[in-house]
Amino acid sequence: MTAGVLEATLQAKIADSKKCLLPYITAGCDGWLEAVYAAAEAGADAVEVGLPFSDPVMDGPIIQQASDLALSQGTTPESIIAAIGNSHFEIPLVAMTYYNIAFHMGHERFASSLKAAGFSAAILADLPVGEAELWINAAGEVKLETVFLAAPTSSPKRCQLIAEKSQGFIYAVGLLGVTGEREKLAASTAVIAQRLKNITDKPVLVGVGISTPANAVKAAAVSDGVVVGSALVRILLETKSPEAVGEAVKRFRVALDNV
Amino acid sequence: MSEAAVLQNDPGSTGRFGQFGGCYIPETLVPACQELESAFRAAWSDPAFRDELDGLLSSYAGRPSPLTHCQRLSEDIGAEIYLKREDLNHTGSHKINNVLGQALLARRMGKTRLVAETGAGQHGVATATAAALFGLECEVYMGEVDMERQALNVFRMRLLGAVVRPATTGSRTLKDAVNEALRDWVATVETTHYCLGSVMGPHPYPWMVREFHRVIGSEARQQCLDLFGALPDLVVACVGGGSNAAGIFSGFATDPQVDLVGVEPEGAATVVRRVPGVLHGSMSYLLQDEHGQVLEAESISAGLDYPGVGPEHAHLASIGRAKYFSVNDQEVADAFALLSRTEGIVPALEPAHALAWVSKQRHDLAGRKVLINLSGRGDKDADQMMKYFAQ
Q1: A58 vs B contacts (CB less than 8 Å)
Q2: A199-256 confidence digits (pLDDT tens)
Q3: Of all residues in chain B, what percent carry a pLDDT higher than 90?
Q4: Domain with A191 in it: what CATH number?
Q5: Is residue B228's pLDDT more than 50?
Q6: Which chain B residue has its CA at the smallest distance from A129's CA?
């Protein structure tokens, strides 16, 4: 199978001996769309757009708060897809949400509306590979890549399965826990990243707990790059300033480029 | 496949009851659920494990629980009413059956800590009890709203040595407590067993929890045969997540002449409304808005205040083997008082839903033998109902 847009983009970066940077923004917070633009301009290789769900069990306090706020302001999957559809980005976008949003809209309809709006890929945080066949088929029909998560608890055998199924990149969950900022990089980050790097040529990006440029550099040393979420969403919630988000992304970009 | 096989099945490694069930959770927890499934399979077919659990159920929990024929209530309603007295178990509800099983299993798996969610506090109290008994650490998440309306159970859990943490997001009830328990487990899975309190969640929980509550149905079936030489015409139980109903239904599901009825609160009538969805690990029926966002359930009873339902109930409803109805808070309050006055038994608000439906349907039940699962006692609800009746 030929690589999709997201994977091709990340592979090109890796071939250039650079590290990948994927900022995450919860859609529906004040200034979210401008923040996605700002992140793209600040040097993101792709941006993850969170479609808020009422019960985000993989997310810590910051993204929970952002999701609640977005939902209370009337954000819906359709309103986010429409906003993205009316925008233009030079880099790939990845939709991140929970499975019930896709299941409720219907696999085919959800996959095709994401694709039509300009998303390249999707991540469904509570859809493990074992339950994903119907979704993968529907997404594959419209050439939407599906990124799967691998965790520190995933055995080498499971990592193999996840690496086979995952498209775009493999999302290595860096620690045992939900999303959120951590002062130190967990020791498990290197273990899971290495486990995946040993078995796949697909890009391996580490996410969860990457809250500072210094942590990002450490995580990228054992992987192909990082996903940064809560640290940026916190800035957006506190400042409501897309520019501040862009500046933060820039700091991550500079740190990763100067390794 | 025969109907019996469909009904009493082992949901296999995929955890499916028809189209419902499965294992929809973040990858971090998938290996833990797989480990739990194989540990449970091994334990459940190990006579030593079964003997130890049976021993605890009788010497510690007080099983078998009696079957009570309600003379005065039967006269009032015009049907023969029998109660399976799970209210007489240690800790005051059926929840102890499941918790003792899971605590034994946790110990067998080498886990040193239990985490649990609780609504009314009955499952939390049962979990804290088992943790104390086995010397395990215990943390219980409970919605902030529920901590208020069930203050007595919060005190009991703390007295038993558990840490009780409020769930402060969303509706601040049972659903949010499950979210917090799952988030805890994602971070602590190596040392912690998630002692889930109902027949919901990712595989193997819906199946495992039903098996731990099967004792309710097995005892009740034999007690009916001993007491009146026949099976009941109707078995009625309340349904939130659905564990007490799953337990008593399991004794009669393969007897087609026995009607099975699950009763939900009007504000959490998940099975009655039949919209499929995925929450907390399984595909089942789910209260949700037109965008797939989960709706807040609303009920007088904290234990049934949940927008989902166990996947086997969705299956039983979809194949028509069990029927599900709802009752409103006023009907529940009336039933709460009715059983207290006619039989000297104060029921928990949860099984008062089952009583309320029977009372409401009395014109259709004339002369029939009705078995109700009295899943818990009402002491915990006394304070709340005192205020309710005062209004």
Answers
A1: 26, 28, 183, 186
A2: 999 999 999 999 999 999 999 999 999 999 999 999 999 999 999 999 999 999 999 9
A3: 90
A4: 3.20.20.70
A5: yes
A6: B27
Q: Is A4 on the interface with B (CB under 8 A)?
A: no
Q: Which residue has the tokens 């009032």?
A: B76
What are the strands, taking DSSP E only, across chain B?
A: 16-17, 20-24, 67-70, 80-85, 113-118, 137-143, 163-167, 192-194, 234-238, 259-265, 276-279, 281-285, 322-327, 369-374
CA–CA gap between residue B60 and residue A82 (Å, rounded) = 59
The Cα of A91 is separated from the nearest Cα of chain B by a number of Å equal to 27
- Closest to A126 (Cα-Cα) out of A178, A67, A58: A58
Domain ranges of chain B: 15-56+94-205, 62-93+214-390
pTM: 0.96
CATH classification number, B15-56+94-205, choose in 3.40.50.300, 3.40.50.740, 3.40.50.1100, 3.90.1150.10: 3.40.50.1100
Tell the burial category of A199 from Cβ atoms under 10 Å away from its Cβ (0-12, 13-18, 19+).
middle
- Tell me if B15-56+94-205 shares its fold with B62-93+214-390: yes
- Euclidean distance between CA atoms A186 and A207, whole angstroms: 11
Residues paired with residue B237 on neighbouring β-strands, in sequence order: B262
Q: B99 — contact with chain A (CB < 8 Å)?
A: no
Per-residue tokens: B123: 């499952």
Domain count, chain A: 1
Q: How far is A24 from chain B (nearest CA, A)?
A: 18
| CB contact (8 A) between residue B27 and residue A150 | yes
CATH of span B62-93+214-390 = 3.40.50.1100
Residue A16 is encoded by which pair of tokens?
Answer: 């250039």
